[in-house]
Amino acid sequence: MRAALVQEFGPPETLVAGELADPVAGPGEVLVEVAAAGVNFPDILVVAGEYQILPERPFSPGKEIAGTVRAVGSGVAGFAVGDRVLAQIEHGGYAELVTVPEPQIVALPDEVPFVDAAAFGLGAITAHFALVRRAGLRPGETVLVTGAGGGVGSAGVQIAKALGATVVAVAQDEERAALARSQGADSVVLAGPSMRDEVLALTEGHGADVVLELVGGEVFAQSLRCTAWEGRLVVIGFASGDLPTIKAGHVLVKNLAVLGLQVSDYRDREPESVRAAIEHLLQLYVAGRLTVPVARTYPLEQAGAALEAVRSGSVAGKVVLTVDPVAAAAG
């Protein structure tokens, strides 16, 4: 089968197009023919050899896929050949075929195209767990979403609105600000030294009850300072590359909760929780309350260029690989 391969760890351009042996579905596994695969920031870390879980080389990266069931292993009862599915996996999505344990597979409604399914998976699941599981968002609260032009940030804006929150988005530039407004953000501020003051002004001094923080560095510092009393700040990532330190005095005097989120832990520890979250997200999509801003698609052979587009921040929205262009276009 065709695949984008990591033979040596390095920058995105070190990915090479190659061949791997076709996988076979073992007991409890589903063999999926991949139509589309989402491209995410953690994939860059995997290719660079900087992620916490690294398989033996050569291997194919890719943590979210959408496609069609090609075969099922013994003991699989919930899926059959030809079913449309999506899945969250540790690696292997940048390939024509991948085996997935049955608990990590979710049935895909006909109304959801493969490209959209691959695009909203990891980002939307991360935002959902951040808002619902970690922060315990309540209707009527104010949510601050940093990095609002990316996949997680975009999903965070929409899901928070769908759950009854007032949303303030933090964008890198005017293009991403426009995207956040189009997805329902009540207010948008640009990242910068005045961010904290602007958020406090927009919330009449109250601050944000919940913060989804994806950027790190100075944006994290500003976010902590404009979190409301007894607010919850969820640390999701460090897109800036600058890992922040926490000033414990802010946490103490405002009774803040600073929470971490590594969503793949839930995939491995509580697959039923991930399945429930995905099914809720699919309901929101079908109802028209969640959209997926797919900024650009690339063929499998250009996986390195797709990763570089994400790494450079040159696209506002989600990047997707069309592993099977015909199936992706049709479905």
UniProtKB/TrEMBL annotation:
Residues 10-321 form the Enoyl reductase (ER) domain. PROSITE patterns: QOR_ZETA_CRYSTAL. One of its GO terms (molecular function) is zinc ion binding. Gene3D superfamilies: Medium-chain alcohol dehydrogenases, catalytic domain (3.90.180.10), NAD(P)-binding Rossmann-like Domain (3.40.50.720). Transmembrane segments: none annotated. InterPro entries: ADH-like_C, ADH-like_N, ER, GroES-like_sf, NAD(P)-bd_dom_sf, Quin_OxRdtase/zeta-crystal_CS, Zn-ADH-like_protein. SUPFAM superfamilies: GroES-like, NAD(P)-binding Rossmann-fold domains. It comes from the Bacteria. This is NADPH:quinone reductase-like Zn-dependent oxidoreductase. The lineage of its organism: Bacteria, Bacillati, Actinomycetota, Actinomycetes, Geodermatophilales.
